[in-house]
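Most newcomers find our protein records easier to grasp once they have seen one. Read left to right, the backbone structure tokens trace the chain's path through space. Nothing more is needed to start thinking about how sequence determines fold. An example says more than a description, so a record of this kind follows:
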Amino acid sequence: MEVSRSGYYAFLKRPESKRSKRQKQLLEKIRAIHKENHEIYGSPSITVELNEAGIPASRGMVARLMRKNGIRSKIRKKYKATTDSNHNLPVAENILNRDFTAESRDTKWVSDITYIGTDEGWLYLAGLLDLFDGAVVGWSMDSRMNKSLVIDALAEACRRRNPKPGLLLHSDRGSQYCSKEYQKVLRKNNFVCSMSRKGNCWDNAPMESFWGKLKTEWLYGKRFRTREEAKQAVFEYIELFYNRKRRRSVNGYIAPLKMGIAA
């Protein structure tokens, strides 16, 4: 490399620069935050964590250190949920019409069903998401995908948030949401029902996006021997991590339940 022996050994004995020391210290903090958040965060969220901890760092610097040292967010894998829309039950119009903004809490909710594989069979999960802050306001799980699944999730959401009449509640046009029993609950609470167009998952994009986060960030690569194991994992993600801790870029990197609390 055209370097003299004496020059090489002089280089080895040279004191480490302040810049090099600072980068090493910053890298240690980045690794710690990345691990603490289950290897989910990329450079934007890690930069926010560092700055809030009083450690000045630019997003560019964090991104370069992560890239150089092979630190990256978990590999994502797409999932696709199914909807049973082959029924003769009444279907509501798409009132939400892909307007996924909300000026305040509990004015617009979206809902959907997904499934998780276990050695005992499928575990079905119904959830409701508030479009204001992205918080999961209600959810339920069962071994069967029936109308009780979505009714129980809605009942939990109502107990937690006590929404006012006029709430817009959007879902797909699956038989569970079109059932007389579910629609009766909506009428009782004076909620406005909205449903996606047939076969159009983009009409319920925020809920589909949340399912993707749950599965790629938390469940992908895990084997659940029982449904109870899967239930515990879902509880940990929704209640302990996502709602209370996971930073959302659309919230200004604030966790859903901290919206309106954090400055």
